[in-house]
Here is the input.
Amino acid sequence: MMQSTFEINHTSRKMLLQFLENHTLEQLNKIPEGFSNNLIWNIGHIVTVQQMLVYNLSGLPMMISDEMVETYKKGTKPEGEITQEEVNEIKELLFSTLEQTKEDFANDIFGEYMEFTTGVGFVIKNAKAAMEFNNYHEALHTGIMMQIRKFL
Here is the structure.
């Protein structure tokens, strides 16, 4: 039922991986003039928001640390440079979180959901809708990253 949603998300994550593999740590951390964040913040934010939308609002444990949530949740911005070790962790989470989410949907673990209205006014009523909205959110941030890339 959600095959295309996950295929779109996998394609999105492969694009994000390209940003990680084709930019130096310095480039990933650079905030160009006129921008409020950088490439690595956007990727950390994407991973964090997916976990919050799908798991946290379903009342289930997330696959990311509380520290990661505090660093990358909505309303945050980069507070200093992140290390290669942190980049590697985010890189690993790009696909491990997606694979686990796919498995969890297959196992039908999502029941209750705390209805949530997004910043653009879309009301998410269940985990399936959260994954669908997540693809829009990832695309939005990928577009921002394509803009940032032009100034590195």
